[in-house]
Write a structure and sequence with these properties.
Blueprint (H helix, E strand, L loop, with lengths): L22 E6 L9 H18 L5 E8 L12 E5 L1 E4 L1 H10 L4 H8 L13 E4 H6 L11 E5 L5 E2 L11 E2 H13 L17 E4 L2 E2 L9 E2 L9 E2 L35 H8 L14 E3 L6 E6 L7 E5 L10 E4 L2 E2 L4 E6 L8 E5 L2
Parallel strand pairs: 1-2, 2-6, 7-8
Antiparallel strand pairs: 3-6, 4-5, 9-10, 9-11, 11-12, 13-14, 14-18, 15-16, 15-19, 17-18
Helix pairs in contact: 1-5
Length: 359
């Protein structure tokens, strides 16, 4: 049995992180003070950032600036959310060699195996890499610049509460923030300008038919040479971003369009998009537990981990109790993908320690 442990009592919380982890440093532009609730906005954006830091273990520090409203690089206006980021020139061979060197999952292995041996667009030079992704891939001669900026519309009614993201009439701000951050990290396309980025390598229209045509319909994301369509792309470049998903009955943080009243989760496929771009997941990692004590006397436990993993929550009132004698409370639920939660309805006011085990 693989055992992963994080202990906490009602008075002392011990949060543990992997030794190697992605770090995203956020600078808040002064425009954030124009928000009615700057502290709440920052906390919600921090929740979105934390998701990526918990999901990916590359020992890399990235820098992002957040703007509120039409300011900085977004003076032309913002529909809902926008991103801007730097790119560096590269070659097809440099990109594919870097992706091979960063294989860390079955998805990585399959996706790299499907890459053509020679540049599929023919000249080998019309390739760009988002600066954040280039850092993660350990490419050379990178500028010490900021990696990107994200901005958010001010004429939108948001919900910022990480525990209440599905509110009628309000847009899930955390989901929008995750959408924009992922674009800075590399989930983007530049084929409209006749340049290409690594993410374009995983765009297909049929089994074995990789597509670099930004106007191609029925394009989808695949990591096994087009054999399996994991998600379909939005394809109307005149009205949206072609790297986003075609909206479906199940809302997703990476959809091209969002509507109010829905939680916008980062799905398992969303996590895979950055995985195949060089952002390595940790497998089952040591949980970083967040505990809250509602007024009803229960204890709520939340943590982020690998989607689909199985966990058991255990408790003891004595930290020295042998592992075999801890009391199993039950299994946390997973919703959305990779985000686990458990409510201990048997909690009392006495000191209590919690342990999470997998499986």
């Amino acid at each position: 049995m693989k055992k992963i442990v994080c202990l906490a009592s009602l008075w002392l919380f011990l949060f543990l992180r992997p030794a190697a982890a992605l770090t995203i440093q956020v600078t808040y532009d002064p425009s954030i003070t124009n928000a009615a609730n700057p502290a709440e906005v920052k906390a919600a954006f921090g929740t979105a950032v934390q998701l990526f830091e918990d999901l990916y273990t590359n020992k890399t520090t990235l820098n992002i600036t957040m703007y509120w409203g039409p300011s900085g690089p977004f003076t032309g206006g913002i529909g809902l959310g926008r991103s801007e980021f730097e790119l560096v020139f590269s070659t097809y061979s440099e990109i594919t060699n870097a992706l091979r060197a960063h294989r860390a999952s079955a998805e990585d292995t399959n996706s790299v195996a499907s890459l053509p041996a020679v540049d599929p667009i023919g000249n080998g030079t019309n390739w760009l890499v988002p600066l954040a992704e280039a850092r993660v891939l350990n490419m050379s001669d990178l500028p010490p610049d900021e990696d990107g900026e994200v901005g958010f519309a001010t004429n939108v009614t948001y919900t910022f509460d990480p525990n209440n993201r599905s509110v009628p009439g309000k847009i899930d701000f955390i989901g929008v923030a995750e959408h924009e951050i992922s674009e800075v990290l590399g989930r983007c396309s530049f084929s409209l300008q006749s340049y290409y980025v690594p993410y374009d390598l995983f765009r297909f229209t049929n089994n074995g038919a990789r597509s670099f045509d930004p106007g191609a319909t029925n394009a989808y994301f695949s990591v096994n040479n087009g054999a399996t369509a994991l998600k379909f792309f939005y394809t109307n470049a005149a009205f949206g971003d072609i790297q986003d998903w075609l909206s479906s009955a199940t809302p997703d943080a990476y959809d091209a369009f969002s509507s109010s009243g829905h939680l916008l989760p980062v799905s398992t496929v969303d996590i895979t998009t950055l995985d195949v771009l060089g952002y390595n997941g940790p497998g089952v990692l040591r949980p970083r537990l967040f505990l809250t004590n509602p007024t009803d006397g229960t204890i709520q436990i939340r943590f982020v981990n690998t989607p689909g993993s199985g966990f058991t929550v255990l408790e003891s009132t004595n930290l020295s109790t042998p592992a075999a004698n801890w009391t199993a409370l039950g299994n946390p639920t997973e919703n959305p993908a990779g985000q686990f939660q458990f409510t201990d309805t048997t909690a009392t006011n006495q000191q209590r320690f919690y342990e999470v085990r997998s499986p």
